[in-house]
Amino acid sequence: MKVYGVTGLPGSGKSIISRIAKKDGIHSISMGDVIRKEAEKQNCTTGEAAVNLRKKYGNNVVADRCIQEIYKHSRKRNKKKTPVKKMHKSNNRYAPPKKYKKIEQDIYIIEGIRSPQEVQYFRKRFKNFKIIAIHSNPEERFNRLIRRKRSDDSPDYKVFLERDRRELDFGIGEVIALADYMLINEGHIQKFKTSVRVLIQNEIKPRTHYNPNPGKNKNKTKLNRRPNKGRKQYIKYDSSRKIYNKKKR
Fold first, then answer.
1. Most buried residue, 32, 110, 188, 225, by CB count within 10 Å?
2. Are 43 and 148 in contact (CB under 8 A)?
3. pLDDT per residue over 184-201, tens digit each?
4. Within a 10 A sphere around the Cβ of 44, how many other Cβ atoms?
5. 221 is a domain residue
6. 162: Cα within 13 Å, side-chain hemisphere
7. Within a domain: 68
8. With contact defined as beta carbons under 8 Å apart, do 131 and 7 qualify?
9. For residue 205, what is the DSSP state?
10. CA dist 194 to 11, 69, 185, 199, Å?
11. So what's the pLDDT on residue 132?
12. What is the tens place of the pLDDT at every residue in 15-67?
C-alpha cells in the first residue's frame, strides 16, 4: 500500500491533484470533507468545527478517520479480487502479443494535511508516507476561492487572510517545509496539470514494462533481429583447377 499526503493553503489547488489521480484509479480522501461534515452536524463554520474536533478528540482525530476510511476501502477492494488484464506487445511485430494478469497496488492520496502531528501519525501507520506540497501566491488563491464559491469561502480579503493565519497556526508551514515534492501552481492551469500528471506517472504510479522471467534471457538475441537461416555459402577459388567451387563455411 502506498499513501501520499497533499498539503497547501486554501485555494492552492489540492483538489486538482485528487481529480487527476482518480482518472488513474487512485482513491483520494479529503480531510476537509471530514471537517465540513462535522460543521454541518454542529451547525457552525468549518474553522470552528476543526478547532472543536481537535479539542474534544485530540489533534489526530481527522487523521484517524481518514485512516479508517482507507482500511475500509482497501478491505472492500481486496474482497473483490478482480485482476486487471493487460496486453504485452513485444518488439517483434510478427510475434503474437502475450497476455498476463496483474493486480494493481493500493494507492491512496490524503488531501488537506495541516499539522506536523498528523504527518507523524500517518507515518506510524503507513511505511514510506510522502508529502506533496503546493505553493501559490495569495492573490491567485483568493481569486480561485471567489470563483469556486464553496460554503466556507468568503469574498472578503480580510477573512481570507484570517483563514490563512488559522491554517498556519495549525502548523501547515512546517508541513510544507518538510514536503518530499513541491509543485508550483501559478500562471496557466494547464502547466500545473501537466506537472501533476508527470509526478503521478513518474513517482506515484509509475508505468513499468512487464517481464515474466526477470533475471533470465539476458544473453539472448533481441526479438526484432532477423533469425539466421543456416550457414552462408561462399565462393572459393581452386588454384589447381582454376575454377570457383561453392563450399560451406
1. 110
2. no
3. 998 888 999 999 999 998
4. 13
5. no
6. 10
7. yes
8. yes
9. S
10. 18, 29, 11, 9
11. 95
12. 899 999 988 889 999 988 888 888 888 888 877 887 888 888 887 888 899 99
Q: Radius of gyration (Cα) for the chain, nearest Å?
A: 29
What's the half-sphere exposure (Cβ side, CA atoms, 13 Å) at 73?
Answer: 16
- Is the full-model pTM beyond 0.85? no
Domain range for 79 is 2-84+104-208
pLDDT digits (tens, 9 = 90+) for 87-97: 556 666 666 66
| Residue 103 banded pLDDT, cuts 50, 70, 90 | low
Number of domains in the chain: 1
d(CA 153, CA 148): 8
**Count of C-beta atoms within a 10 Å radius of residue 91:** 9
Q: Return the H-helix or E-strand segment holding 109.
A: strand 107-111
The secondary structure of residue 201, as a DSSP letter, is: I
Is 125:110 a contact under the CB 8 Å cutoff? no
User: Cα dist. 152→9, 13, 28, 141 in Å?
Assistant: 14, 16, 21, 14
Cell of 214: 526477470
